[in-house]
TrEMBL record:
One of its GO terms (molecular function) is structural molecule activity. The keyword DNA-binding does not apply. GO terms for cellular component: bacterial-type flagellum. Residues 239-318 form the Flagellin C-terminal domain. The lineage of its organism: unclassified sequences, metagenomes, ecological metagenomes. InterPro entries: Flagellin (IPR001492), Flagellin_C (IPR046358), Flagellin_C_sub2 (IPR042187), Flagellin_N (IPR001029). Residues 43-177 form the Flagellin N-terminal domain. The keyword Transmembrane does not apply. This is Flagellin. It comes from marine metagenome. Keywords: Bacterial flagellum.
Amino acid sequence: METNPHILTLKMFSAREYNINVSSISVFLFHGGIRTLALRIFNNLVSYSAQRLLGENNNKLSQVFSRISSGQRIQKSSDDSAGLMTSEALRSDVRTLRQGVRNLNEGISLLNVVDGAINEEVSILIRMRELSQQSATGTIGATERQSTNLEFSAMRTELNRISKTTEYNGIKLLDGSLSSTASNQISIQFGLDSKDDNNININRAVNVTSLTALSLNLNALSIATQDGAVKANEELQVTMNRLNKISGRLGSTHNRLERSLNNTLTSAENLTAAGSTISDADMASEFAHLTKQQILVQSSSSMIGQANLFPQGVIQLLPS
């Protein structure tokens, strides 16, 4: 009788007849002489494989949970060592630039204080010049000139007070502390390093010399007489020109700081975007991965239960 090679043949052995240990019995199915399946009860390889895959899927699911909860794609160096180094370097640069932004804002605030005080002094000089012009005319008498001189002196006293008391964070501003020859220079640092291109020396830029009445040669002026009023008028014109030049330097430096501020803000924004691309998690992608890993964990758990039932098939092969 010929054997049909397409018919699956099962050969069964009695464990008791051949004195075989049941814990290691293996039953093979042959098809055309090729082994296609092995049933084992001592080592359930299918269950081991399913358990390994379950562990891997649980680890991946934990990583997805961590990325979603933190919003960060890189949690530790093993996730992406090169990306972590790059993102940390960018984060450091961004924080440095943002501190530079605060420094520039403080520098602008300092210049605003100086500018406001000088504008007030200019207004005082304008009034003093107006009074000197009034006193210089020959149509008023000595009494009127005395009254006018009182206001002139009061204006000079106020100008002197403003020069001596104007300050920013304890730094005197109109007593010569902002002159280019001052011993303590004020620099605004705003770049990523300490090179000269990344800081502005306020003293050299604005050169605000002492603006007290003594420094401006105003103490000796008097408009109590007509000749004194004429002299005061000329001296006040020179003083106003001096303050106007300082105001021009203040305005140009103020505009420079604003341009530097805008550029620093733009650089910080672009570096933040670059760091975000590297380190931030793509939430849409992570939620897709979450669904995937949850399904894989559930299916792996289910398959472990199914795989644990495989060895029970051996019982059916033993004779009753």
